[in-house]
Design a protein that fits this description.
This protein has a domain of 136 residues: Tetracycline Repressor, domain 2 (Orthogonal Bundle). Helix content is 76%, strand content 0%. The protein contains 10 helices and no strands. The radius of gyration is 20 Å and the shape is elongated.
Length: 205
C-alpha cells in the first residue's frame, strides 16, 4: 500500500523563497547563460545562503529547468491563440501584438530563451522537436489555408512565423541597443505601429 500520509503543502515562506531564487536565477541566467552562472551568484542575488538555496533546489540544473518550464508555457501561449475561425489579417496582427507584449513584459525570459537557443538548446531540444514543432506545424497549416483561399497574400507560413518571432523578440533581446539608438525608454508603441504596417503590407491581398 502507498503512504497514506497527506503531502504537506509548502508554507508561504517556502513559496516566497522559491520565487526569490527563481527571480534571481532569471537575472543571472539571462545575463551570463547557463554555463556562466554559478549557484553562488544565484544565492547572492536572492539574498540567501548557498545551503538555503540547495534546500529548495538540488542544483543549478534544477533551477534552470524550472525556469525553462515556466518560460515555455508562457512563450507558446500566444501562438496557441491563433484562431482558424477568425479574420486572417487580424489574427496575424493580434499574434504580432501578443508577441511584442511578451518582449515588453518579460525581457529577461526572452533573453534566457535566446541564450538557451544560441548554446544549442541543450535543455529544451526535445521540447523544440515535439511540442513546439507540433504547434507550429498546426498553425502554419491554418495560415497556409488562409493563403490558399485568397484571404492572405502568398508567403511561406513557417518563415512568416519565424519573422514574427525575430522582429518582436529583438526589442527584448537587444533592448540596450534599441534604447541607445532611439534615445527613448519606450520603443514599443512605435514598434507596434511599424510591425502592424509591415505585416499588413506583406499579407494584404
Amino acid at each position: 500500500m502507498g503512504d497514506p500520509r497527506p503531502i504537506k503543502k509548502p508554507s508561504r515562506i517556502q513559496l516566497r523563497n522559491r520565487r526569490r531564487i527563481l527571480d534571481a536565477a532569471l537575472d543571472t541566467f539571462s545575463q551570463f547563460g547557463f554555463r556562466g552562472t554559478t549557484l553562488d551568484q544565484i544565492a547572492k542575488a536572492a539574498g540567501l545562503s548557498k545551503p538555503n538555496l540547495i534546500y529548495y533546489f538540488d542544483g543549478k540544473e534544477a533551477i534552470h529547468a524550472a525556469l525553462l518550464s515556466e518560460l515555455l508555457e508562457t512563450w507558446l501561449d500566444p501562438l496557441k491563440e491563433l484562431d482558424a475561425g477568425g479574420e486572417p489579417m487580424e489574427e496575424i496582427l493580434a499574434y504580432v501584438r501578443r508577441k511584442l507584449r511578451l518582449s515588453q513584459d518579460f525581457p529577461r525570459e526572452s533573453r534566457l530563451f535566446a541564450t538557451e537557443i544560441i548554446q544549442g538548446a541543450p535543455h529544451i531540444q526535445r521540447v523544440l522537436e515535439t511540442d513546439l514543432k507540433t504547434l507550429v506545424d498546426k498553425q502554419a497549416r491554418i495560415i497556409q489555408g488562409w493563403m490558399n483561399d485568397g484571404r492572405l497574400a502568398p508567403a511561406d507560413p513557417y518563415h512568416l512565423i519565424f519573422s514574427i518571432w525575430s522582429l518582436t523578440q529583438h526589442y527584448a533581446d537587444f533592448d540596450t541597443q534599441v534604447r541607445a539608438v532611439l534615445a527613448t525608454e519606450d520603443a514599443f508603441p512605435a514598434a507596434e505601429a511599424y510591425l502592424e504596417t509591415l505585416f499588413t503590407r506583406l499579407l494584404k491581398v
